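Lab notes, practical 5.
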Amino acid sequence: MYITLTDVVVLLAAFVVIAQFWHIRAITETANRYLAAFCEERGLQLLSVARFKTRIGMHRGKPDWHTIFEFEFSGNGEDKYNGKLIMKGKQAVDVDMPAYRID
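Output from the prediction step:
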């Protein structure tokens, strides 16, 4: 049994897709941990986190994923507010939150 160039290319492509899937999952897990700590520090309740947008871009001179997460939080347990977290690779770059009520 011989391995052809087509076989090698298909295996390589499958490997790249799987590796990128794992990398995006790692970014999502990092964002969840970051937002949990962020809200804990400020006395907020983190309600939900969702990946909003993912695209490829340059980060520290190499291609990496630029991801925007939307999250919901509460300051008093009754109201709900939406915020955004911007990640470049596994690094949190910016958190955008509206003014919120606390009790």
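Observations recorded by the TA: Residues 5 and 11 are 10 Å apart (CA to CA). Strands lie at 45-59, 62-74, 81-88, 91-96.
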